[in-house]
Amino acid sequence: MTAVCHTNRFWRHPAAALVFLGIIILVSGCGPGLPKDLKNKAKAVPDTIETYGTRVEKNKERYKALAGSQQFKAFEIYASREDWPGYFTQAEAALARAKTLFDKELAPLVKQNRPEGAPKVRQQMDRIQMILADAQKLSALPVQRYSLIKESMENAHTLAQQAAADAKAVSRIKDRLQTDTLAKTLADFPDLAPDINARFAPVAALAQQSAVHLNTAAGEYERHTAGSGADYAAFADSVAALAADHDRAKTLETAFKKETRELYTSYTKILKDMKETYFVTVKRESWNENSDYYDPRHAVFERQVSPETYGMLTAEDLDTIAAITPGFTGSRLSTSISDSIWKELAVNPTAQWPGRGHNAASFWVEDAKEVYHHKYILETNGETKETDWEQVDENVYFANLEYLGMAILSKPYGVFEKDRITEAAPPGMAYVGNPRYGKWQEDSSGDRFWSWYGKYAFFSSLFFFPPSYYSYNSWHGWNSSYRNRQPYFGKTSDGFQKYGTSGTVVKKSPTFQNTNFAKSGGFKSQTASVRGAGSGLRGGGPKSKGK
Q1: Is the pLDDT confidence value at 466 over 80?
Q2: How far apart are CA 42 and CA 387, in angstroms?
Q3: Does some domain include residue 478?
Q4: Structural domain range at position 363
Q5: Which end of the chain is least crowded, N or C, by CB within 10 Å?
């Protein structure tokens, strides 16, 4: 969709013009400096650094108090091995980096105070915030490790049971997938065994990893029960790892089932029809020509128009399209566009008239937009349906302008979703060669053609009846050189384009001759679109109206 609007009407009123100019200056980056709110936040960064420094110091004091207590004796081995005090050194180094970044990078940008520097200011502020968050996290780790290990000492039995349950759940997920989903999918799609096994591999690897974690947890729990010096840090970490393994296994199970289900579904999306619709918004400003007091009133009228009218009304040299002027015998309407265009607009000149003595008005095109639609034929597992009109982005519309009557998206049976075909091709071509959909046969001349099974025969009668079929040579050319590489339009025996908007098949097909695209002259001239014509309105508009 393209939308445009007038601005020149501001220039008649000095106050409005100044406000508008100020907005333009601000938006264009030519203003006085950085946005005030951003500048204030940037200047407050040193205070933020100080706040995080205080948090780090509090965590450090808390750890010191804990380390000086009698109960900490049992944890000294872990504190030494993992270098818990070193976390504070790292946190203080991070705070120093944040301060350096402010002094050398952010502060100079704030001092320069240039509006174009705003993105860099935000970037540096984000970097500093990440560093500060890391500093706080590092300073909290010693006490967190102490608490985790302490819990493993006090609740070893419960945690050992939890670890065993998590490991068992991971193993069950792997076995269930292996004996059911994996086995069935491999049996149904033996040619895809490498891809299927590759998708199952993370599950198998996770099960092996979980077995290692369980072995560690079980070993340390056994030492705990025997009172022979368990490594409670290793025990706690293994318990936590098994809980994470369980969550990961459930995620992998869902993903594997979803991906394997994709193989059992096929679909095709065929571009059935296209249309462009055009809208203009006519704005009217009315006033009292006999009054010294300027008190305008406005009314708007949105109208759908033909492409030709749209092009005329969005021309760069078009100012006002109509005016009401007062006279001795009453007000008179005059138009600067043809009577046929004014009639098509069907604007009642005095509709929503404000009264209060207003006797003059100007009409102009305030806004214009182009709206684009597609219709599709959707085929899923042999069942077809036609969609209603669907609005599409203008880039999507023009990107597919050459693909009328073609499959713009296909996913055959036995193909993963990520490998679906996104390059335009003749409908059903992606299914040819797959024995699920049909088989190769020979005609009386010995030439091979693809014969569809039952419900997939739709593809042979989409364009014509009696049906037409894809030859082996046509399919082989597409499959070897075009499949998911580039659009395939094919060629007739005379060397003309066969498929797509400019192809002979669509142009001769009764089905597609009855489309909106065909009836609106799309086949005659695909260059006749007035795409972006409304851009002529930008900066245009009435140059003299009102008092």
Answers
A1: no
A2: 53
A3: yes
A4: 1-31+272-378+530-547
A5: N
Tally of CB atoms within 10 A around 157: 11
Domain boundary among 97, 121, 153: 153
Pick the last residue of a domain from 233, 264, 295.
Answer: 264
Alpha helix stretches (DSSP H) within 227-351: 232-262, 307-313, 339-345
Q: Are strands 360-380 and 390-392 parallel, antiparallel or unpaired?
A: antiparallel
Burial class, 408, CB count within 10 angstroms (exposed 0-12 / middle 13-18 / buried 19+): buried
Give tens-digit pLDDT for 399-436. 999 999 999 999 999 999 999 999 999 999 999 999 99
Q: 89 with 18, same domain? A: no
Nearest to 449 by CA among 458, 462, 457, 440: 440
- This prediction's pTM: 0.77
The predicted-structure confidence for 21-79, as pLDDT tens digits, reads as follows 554 444 444 457 999 999 999 999 999 999 999 999 999 999 999 999 999 999 999 99
pLDDT in tens, 482-524: 999 999 999 988 889 999 999 999 998 988 988 999 888 876 6
* β strands within 404-498, DSSP E: 407-411, 438-442, 448-452
Q: Residue 309 pLDDT > 60, yes or no?
A: yes
DSSP state of 293: S
Could you count the other beta carbons within 10 Å of the beta carbon of residue 402? 18
Query: Do 276 and 343 have their domain in common?
Result: yes
Same domain, 514 and 457: yes
519 with 412, same domain: the answer is yes
Residue 19: its H or E element: helix 14-27
Q: How many domains does the chain have?
A: 4
Would you say residue 383 lies in a domain?
A: no
| Beta-carbon contacts of residue 42 (< 8 Å; ≥ 6 apart) | 34, 106, 109, 110, 121, 125
Residues 374 and 423 in one domain: no
In a domain, residue 385? The reply is no
pLDDT at 7: 43
Residue 56 in domain: yes
Residue whose pair of structure tokens reads 């049996």 in the numeric block:
187
Q: Stretch 525-543: mean pLDDT, rounded? A: 51
Tell me, yes or no, whether 246 and 287 share the same domain.
Answer: no
